[in-house]
# Entry
Amino acid sequence: MDAALVQTAMGYAGAVACLGLSAAGSAFGTGFAGISAVGAWKKCYAQNKPAPFILLGLVGAPITQTLYGMILMFVMFGKAQLGVPLVILGIFAGLGIGLSAFFQGRCAAAACDAQAETGQGLTNYFGAVGIIETVAIFTMVFTLIAVSSLKIA
# Structure
């Protein structure tokens, strides 16, 4: 098999791994937060309290990491076409972004419960969720810098 073809395939595999791992983290994160929001709304309904619609903002927070993975994937496709093998880079970038989404969802789940129970602290909850988001943004930006600095052999 042609070495250039293998390198190109490994480049595409890395790009897709980056998206896949980012999306997996988003799936877990939104799942955790969504489950918690439904439970929080149930508690509100059981107590005849208004169910806070804003919890959907917390549920949706981890979905942005899929977008970061997609942005990286498209940039990595460009390098992959030139024969740059990006498998390891794609796996670790996707893992960093995906874990950010995973833990952001865990944080959002706790925030949903706390907001529904107390009706207070929403700004603080979004602040904590935003700090966790920053890990994914940093990962994306630093990976973009790394990918753009790769030289073709």
About this structure: The helical segments are 3-46, 55-60, 64-80, 87-118, 122-149. The chain has a mean pLDDT of 95. The chain has one domain: 3-149.
